[in-house]
Amino acid sequence: MHIAIDLDNTVLDATTAHITYYNRASGKALTAADIQDFYIYRSYGWNQEERDIIYAKHGHDIHWHSAPYPNAADSLRQLSLQHELSIITARPMLFRDVTIDWLNHHKFTYTNISFDENKLEACIAAKVDVLIDDAPHYAEEFARMRKPIILYDQPYNRAVTSEFVLRAANWVEVNRHIQHLATGLK
Ligand SMILES: [Mg+2]
């Protein structure tokens, strides 16, 4: 299969790293429990422009200091033996180098990486069989197109349900869904 994989809050804990730097920038003391929105900056009352300034300043540190989720790197290494793995992140190209350095540092294995916000289009163009992501809007787009998506469970995506949305609470469950899909495609 050709599997596309998101980074933030799918293979790594982006929420904790964002909160650390956003708290420093704002003087607030939010915790992960306060984040109920996919767009973390909204919990700080910032508009997009305010967020862009903070992100440009701290984005490198946020991305470098994000912790991988348990079993994520091992899972990609195992999956790479049988599948084509394309990392697709909506991060801007500004953070390309730190992203690739981080993936190498944590021993992630993958075939390709691209920086693209329009994941549905990118997945169709690259003939991707399944996307693994946490974003509720991608899950809704994929479900509408009747394309399977493995949705990495997060507090802000629980309202999304569809027969095409396969929810996974951890990487053991992600692997279980992939095995199931791969068997169905044979
Ligand atoms: Mg994400």
TrEMBL record:
Identify the keywords attached in UniProt to this record, alphabetized.
Hydrolase
Q: Which domain of life is it from?
A: Bacteria
Q: Which InterPro entries match?
A: 5'(3')-deoxyribonucleotidase, 5_3-deoxyribonucleotidase-like, HAD-like_sf, HAD_sf, Nucleotidase_putative
Organism the protein comes from: Paenibacillus lignilyticus
Q: Is-annotated flag, keyword Hydrolase?
A: yes
The enzyme's first-digit EC class, named in words, is hydrolase
The answer, when asked if Iron is one of the entry's keywords, is no
Tell me the protein's name.
Answer: Nucleotidase
Q: What is its EC number?
A: 3.1.3.-
- Report any Pfam family annotated for this entry: NT5C
Spell out the family assignment given in the record's similarity comment: Belongs to the 5'(3')-deoxyribonucleotidase family.
